[in-house]
Amino acid sequence: MSGSSGSGVRTVGTPLRLRRTAQGWLLCAVLLWAVPALVLGGAHGAVSAAQDHAAPAVVDAAQVGAYLADADRVATAGFVAGTVQLSGPGQQYQDDLKSAEQALERAAGHDANGAGQLQTVEGLLVEYTSLIEQAHANAGRNTLSTAYLGYAAGVMNAPDTGILAQVAALQAAEQDRVDRQRHSGWLAPAVQIGMLAPAVPALVLLVSTQRFLSRHFRRRLNPGLLAATVLLLALSGWTAAEALRDYRAFTTACDRALPRLTAGWQARTLTARAAGGDALAVFRGIPGQPLGGDFGTTLAPLTRDAGAPAPAPTLAPAPGDLASPAGAPSQGKLAQLLAGDLAGADPADGRRAGAEHLLQDYRRFTDADAALRQRAGTLGQDAAPATDPATVAAAVGPAGTQLGGAVTALDADLAARTTLARQDLAGAEATAGSDQGLSLALPLLCAALAGLGLAGLWPRIDEYRAPR
Question: What pTM value is reported for the model?
Fold first, then answer.
């Protein structure tokens, strides 16, 4: 009687459980594909939006600022040197304007929402170039030429309403867009971990089914279920590793590589503005009065973060012994740009040597400003800086000890660093944007999981369908 009862329980309960297990396993296989595909698709969408639109718009805005600041510097230097009367502002001025206009067009293509602000920049740029043309047309009349050049400098450099201020605001708005993509809900750790949730019930079902079959059918191992378990663990590990890799790469791109690249362009903007400010101060200098300009204030963001206490006023900025890594700035744009290139960098790749050379040229740049001011301070009461050949040479001369040559050398160093930063950003973006084939393999592997599970269960289900 007990045997018959035991047999009855087996013939009635076991087939139903096996069929329900098969159905549950098929549902797990579908979820193992659908949930990671949904999360990875959303995450890659956020990454693509940042890579294809927001991040390029940030870089474009930073480039606009650098090109326009250099155009203003070159134009002002031409007036100081007197070459503007022969050749106008010069070819470099025209090339800078062309590069800035191209960057503006790219920025407009990357973000239609910034069209209003871009139009404001374009309108101010038209006004600026018109003033430079008026200054050029009146180059032989010092009063008018000085006035027009001063107006042009105001349009370019006014703290809140100038072109460079508008460009900085545009860059900040685009950076906010990158930050929103960086903190997308699809990239939240809870969501990334949650996409592995279907693997838990799937693993529990596999283990419990294996134990059930072992007890009821006297078989220790089921090859199909064992293979499904191994494949499930491998797929879960691959998915987790891919999600972690993408998250780290995108974090590196947004939090390190992109700020480093924009810091390079901003450093070029600041140095061009500082050199242009010195040249304008010479051009507008009054006999017997110290050379004006705000060279130190303009360069402050290079070695000091926003909101940091301002140093005591000096004739020229004193960043310390920047000729050695120990004297490298720990704050500001230079610290961002050179992060990791001085401490722990591989000497073989040349990054450390390039960083040290940049710091040396930065020191020469600030020394050239100090020498210019010292020279201007020795002029007599009746001598204007713009009429003194030695002062003019100190302001715009091409030698390494003169401000014109020093800013050219420093800009070349900064350009080299921005190239490296762009390569770093491209590498991080490529890593974050690639899923290593997981999106293609996921449905195939989940189908294989479903097949292996059914292959392990079907012979047992078939036993009850066979005639007895």
Answer: 0.85
